[in-house]
Design goal:
Layout: H1 6-16, H2 24-32, E1 54-56, E2 59-60, H3 64-74, E3 82-85, H4 91-99, E4 103-107, H5 110-119, E5 129-133, E6 148-155, H6 159-162, E7 169-175, E8 183-190, E9 196-204
Parallel strand pairs: 3-4, 3-6, 4-5, 6-7
Antiparallel strand pairs: 1-2, 7-8, 8-9
């Protein structure tokens, strides 16, 4: 099925580029994938506006500018495997799938997993994404299997992720106190020596990850 992505291309050329997103690989991927098909029906007219769009379960899509800067910061290579924690509607996972090797996208909400699968079923996308209902807090050990980790919610303790990262891996997470109105999107690079390099990339509003005692 052919999908019109004119609005997406205009968003990338007129807005995303102006935010110092200059990685052509990222820009090309953002142009290929029509963002509207991953946006809930009620909000399709807002698909290309820089806002957090509700997707149900009190969750939201990240803003387009945040997604673009996140992908640029990670500099994903074609041979790298990616773990996306919080699949949402599948948009970010689909973008990552065109940049990397394989994507494992997880979410605690089974309805979002099913929505992600449906939204990603297009011939202009790869078939290299595994969507799975999984609570990362019960499965932290899987982080070690991946070169790239993307956490779409915020945490107030980066050790939750970094303690399980393998050497020569990278993670993009949102960090800050749960009650803080803004969180910092940070790139974490774990070296062979187990030392960490931290780069602060962006400030934005992201919901905290759901912990067991918050259910």
């Amino acid at each position: 099925m052919k999908v019109d992505n004119t609005d997406t291309i205009n968003m990338v050329d007129n807005h995303i580029r102006s935010l110092n997103v200059i990685d052509n690989n990222v820009l090309d991927v953002l142009k290929i994938i029509p963002r509207k098909i991953f946006t809930p029906e009620t909000y399709k007219n807002f698909s290309h506006i820089d806002i957090n769009i509700p997707i149900g379960n009190n969750e939201y899509m990240l803003m387009p500018s945040v997604e673009a800067k996140l992908l640029q910061a990670l500099n994903i290579k074609l041979n790298e495997d990616i773990l996306v924690i919080g699949s949402g509607t599948g948009y970010l996972s689909s973008c990552a799938s065109l940049l990397g090797n394989k994507v494992h996208a997880i979410d605690i909400y089974s309805d979002l997993i099913e929505i992600s699968k449906k939204n990603s079923n297009h011939d202009f996308l790869k078939t290299n994404i595994l969507y799975e209902r999984l609570d990362i807090m019960d499965n932290l050990s899987i982080i070690k299997k991946y070169n790239i980790i993307i956490l779409t919610s915020s945490i107030d303790n980066i050790d939750i992720i970094t303690n399980h990262m393998n050497s020569n891996s990278r993670a993009f997470i949102f960090f800050g106190k749960n009650t803080a109105p803004m969180k910092t999107g940070i790139l974490l690079t774990k070296l062979k020596s187990s030392s960490l390099i931290r780069d602060d990339i962006i400030e934005t509003d992201v919901k905290p990850i759901i912990m067991k005692n918050n259910d």
